[in-house]
Each structure stands twice: as C-alpha cells, then as structure tokens.
From TrEMBL:
InterPro entries, sorted: Cyclic_di-GMP/3'3'-cGAMP_PDE, HD/PDEase_dom, HD_domain, HD_GYP_dom, HDIG_dom
A molecular function (GO) term: cyclic-guanylate-specific phosphodiesterase activity
Protein name, per record: Cyclic di-GMP phosphodiesterase response regulator RpfG
Organism per entry: Calidithermus terrae
Gene, per the UniProt record: rpfG_8
Residue ranges of every copy of the HD-GYP domain listed in the record: 142-338
Domain of life: Bacteria
The keyword Protein transport is assigned to this record: no
EC code: 3.1.4.52
Lineage: Bacteria, Thermotogati, Deinococcota, Deinococci, Thermales
PANTHER family: CYCLIC DI-GMP PHOSPHODIESTERASE TM_0186-RELATED, LIPOPROTEIN
Cited SMART domains: HDc (SM00471)
C-alpha cells in the first residue's frame, strides 16, 4: 500500500526580490510600482545635478522604463516612458539653465523613443512570461505524470509485498532516514525513498513458484532470482530516463562492499551510494521481520549482524548510520504501524530546468 497525504501540486515560489520585478501580485504589485516611481525620480535627480540632458546620465532612464516593462507590461511601460520623456523635457531645470532650454523637437523625440522602448520591451516580456508559464505548466503536468507512473509501479510491488507485510515501505523509510544521516538532501532524498519502495520491482518478472519456493533454490533458480535487480532497473528506465537515479539504486541493491554481490560485482565506493544504503535497509528489514521459515531478530540482534558484516557485505559508513538510527530510536519494525513518509514525494522533472517545489 502506498500512502499519500495528497499534495500533488507543484508550484514555483520566486524569491521576494524577484517578485518586485517579475509578475508582481498583491502588495508586491504596489511595491513594484513604488520602486519604478522612486527610480524614475532618482534618475531625474541625477540628471539634474550632473548638468542636465546633454550628459550621458539621461540614459539611466531606461532602467525604470525596463523595470516597468518587466513587471507591469507594455501599457504601464509606455506610460512610464511618456512620463520620463516629459520629466526629461521642458521641466528639466538643469537643461534649461545649462543650455538655454531644449529644442521642442529634441525632448519630444526622446519621449517617443522612451515610449517605444517601454512598449516594445513590455510586449517582449509579456510574450516571454506567457511562454515561461506554459513551460512551467508542462513541467507540472510531467511531474504529475511521472509521479503517477511511480505510484503505479509501487502498486504492482505492493501487490506482492502484501506477502511480506509492508517490507518495501519499511525499506523506503529506513533508506530515507539513513540517507539523511549520510548527507543526502532534497530531491535526492525523495528519489532515495522511491528507490527503497521500488527496490524489488524486478521481482514482477520472476516466476512466482521460485519466489515462493519454501526449500533451497537450485543454482539455476538462484540465477533467475538474481535477475530482479537488473530487471527492476530496466523497467524503470523504459518508463522514463528521468528515473535513472532510482534505477541505479535498484540495480545495485544486492551489490556487496567486498565485490561479491550481483549483478555487476561492484566493490566499495564503485557501488552507487543508493545501492549501498538500500542493501543495509533491505537486510535490516528482512532480519527484523517474521518469515515463514524463521522468527524475527530483535533490533540489537539485527544491528549486531549488520555490524559483523560491515566492511565485507555492507558499507561500514552506512552501518554506522544505522547504529545512529537505532540509538535515536528511529527504526521501525514489523508490528508497529507502517512507517509513513510525511507525504509521497512529488517527482521533480529536472530535465526541464525548472525549480519546482512541493507546495507546503
Ligand atoms: Fe532484492
């Protein structure tokens, strides 16, 4: 069973300063207009005290005009351009004093240029805004689609997981907790959670009679079971290349620190970190759970077993992180309610280059 507390929505939360410039809403809109007005007056002041319109500081006026274009669109930017033209025209005292007044044609042409720049830039920004909005909506739709794909795969695993009473959810939980203690952060942590939930996805392709066989497996049957690591990764990659990191962890969850694992026989840090974490989370969960053929080990017994195999089967650092987890009383075993991630993570679409964040 995959639990969700529901937030599928992704939303982009721009920083406050950006909201003064780009798509200001509510109070930010008022603040944006105030910044435009203040910067416009500041330019008028600078031009006045530096000799009037004949000097190059007059070009500073493009600042407030473009600011208005970015935040308020073509109409407001044109109006700001007109206002700027007038303020730089007959009322520009320094010009009058220094040059005996500006010829009418001169300031009018400059005002028209300001208006044209403001209006043109406003149109370009509006177009850009529309296209960014469309891209963001597409990214959000894709993120929901990817999340649904992962949930569907997780539901398939959960069907089989019923036999082992929440094994995959507990592996996901412990992998997530271990990852946190090993410096995995943000989206990577959520990816690790998914990798934990889906680590045995490939078992859907292994014949049921082998998986349920009560006795010892033959060498051929064991080779068949070993295929599940690669198979799970292949299913994920065929669903989307976006799942590459999850697939990498799933493929490596039976590798051993000493290189005697499968499917590739990788050793030490050549094993992807997610694989090393999943290996510890998986075995810890299996040891502390009841199986038809044996009673569950206690948490100290399971921890001792993992510590004995640190440096041979397991990454010692990951086992150390498990020790911390046990000392903090954060491990979950069979019999307690299934551990819940605070919510099923939204899968972030990184290839779109947009910083989507979960709505809180
Ligand atoms: Fe496995």
């Amino acid at each position: 069973m995959v639990h969700s507390t529901g937030s599928d929505a992704t939303q982009v939360k721009p920083q406050a300063w950006l909201q003064l410039v780009w798509e200001p809403t509510g109070l930010y809109r008022l603040a944006h207009l105030a910044v435009v007005a203040l910067s416009l007056l500041a330019v008028v002041y600078v031009v006045s005290v530096t000799g009037g319109t004949p000097n190059p500081f007059v070009h500073l006026m493009y600042g407030p005009i473009l600011l208005a274009a970015a935040g308020s669109g073509a109409g407001v930017a044109t109006a700001v351009g007109l206002l700027a033209g007038v303020l730089m025209g007959p009322y520009q005292q320094a010009s009058l004093a220094a040059a005996g007044g500006q010829p009418d044609g001169g300031w009018l042409v400059r005002a028209l240029i300001y208006c044209a720049v403001g209006g043109g830039a406003g149109l370009v920004f509006e177009r850009l805004r529309r296209s960014l909005r469309a891209t963001r909506e597409l990214a959000e739709r894709l993120a929901r689609g990817y999340g649904n794909t992962l949930r569907t795969l997780a539901a398939i695993v959960a069907e089989r997981d019923e036999q082992t009473g929440g094994h995959c959810e507990r592996v996901a939980y412990h992998a997530h907790e271990l990852g946190k203690r090993l410096g995995v952060e943000g989206h990577d942590l959520e990816t690790l959670w998914w990798a934990g939930l889906l680590h045995d996805l490939g078992k859907v392709g292994i014949p049921e009679y082998i998986l349920r066989k009560p006795g010892k497996l033959t060498a051929e049957e064991y080779r068949e079971v070993q295929r599940h690591a690669d198979l799970g990764a292949q299913i994920l990659l065929s669903a989307s290349p976006e799942f590459a990191t999850i697939a990498e962890g799933v493929r490596a969850h039976h590798e051993r620190w000493d290189g005697k694992g499968y499917p590739r026989g990788l050793a030490g840090e050549a094993i992807p970190l997610f694989g090393r974490i999943l290996a510890v989370a998986d075995v810890f969960e299996v040891l502390t759970s009841r199986r038809p053929y044996r009673e569950p080990s206690s948490v100290p017994e399971a921890l001792a077993e993992l510590q004995r195999n640190a440096g041979s089967q397991f990454d010692p650092q990951v086992v150390e992180a498990l020790l911390q987890l046990v000392q903090e009383g954060r491990v979950q075993t069979e019999g307690v309610p299934p551990p819940l991630y605070h919510e099923v993570p939204v899968f972030e679409v990184r290839s779109m280059g947009l910083e989507s964040q979960r709505a809180n």
